[in-house]
What we know:
- It is a multi-pass membrane protein.
- This protein is mainly α.
- The protein has eleven helices and six strands.
- The strands form three sheets. A two-stranded antiparallel sheet has the order 1-2.
Amino acid sequence: MAGMASSPPPGPWRQAIRALGRNRSAMIALATLLLVTLACLLAPLYARDVARTDPFVSNVAGSVMLDGREVDIMQPNDNPLHLGLSPIGPTWRASYLLGADSQGRDLASRLLYGGRNSLLISSCAAVLCLVLAATTGIIAGFSGGIVDAVLSRMMDIMWAVPVYLFAISLSIVTVSHGLVLGPFVVRADSLFIPVFIIALVYMPYAARPIRGRVMALRGAEFVTAARCLGVPRWRIVLRDILPNVTTTLVMLGPLLMALSLLAESALSFLSLGVQAPAASWGTIIQDGEGLIYTRPMVAVAPGLAIVVVVLALNILGDGLRDALDVRDAGRRSS
């Protein structure tokens, strides 16, 4: 009706969400991530009620019922002399669905438990990295002068060191002696250690684009007007700078989580990340290294899980970037 007021146009964030919802690839990637996360969260239920096994207890002398007959978990090798033993391969049944590892433990259960730690570490490392990068980038970009010079040179020094060499060096020290942060002491087997190391290693890569964004905003008209009105610097940062940096943080989130997952898997494969008896996808790949020719599933299954999650995160990140471009275009047009 002509007398009725027209509905207000959707806000920029609602436009971004709608644009993301129309991106089929991003929605498939998001659904994949949610499905993998849900499966990993249900790991205790799967191990107790489906596989009916403890994935952290060695079972080299155990057996499993297949087609009405009892089959040993450890099988003779397929060589002419049948020397040595190899774990049972995939049964494609509830028990030992993907087979067993060298200790006779159910691989599917360990895969889900390992996914819990890998996803937890990578997501927490990405969040911590964003917090550190946002703090450093905003302080450097908004302050300028000597503060910006000092922080930028520190970032350049960290940037110059290869990522994995930096991470391995920090891990060797912390895994041996733990981590001491003032009055707080973190044990060597704590999951916080790989979270902290990965966040610190990737912090310069996220801080640089945030600093550049803040430097561009520092000269914007609304920031200059706020300064002329005598608005405190902390208020300008919280009300004018930080909301405009949010899009950069959101776009960096999936990328940092994918990089953190790869770094965690590499460190755990080298026994410098998640420590036994805990499991992660990297430690499971390490367990399957000696079985790559006889029972390749032990190494292939977690490797495929890493590929799927990293690919989904990259696709979701591309979708978020496109959606936030629509948001920024809508904000400029309004």
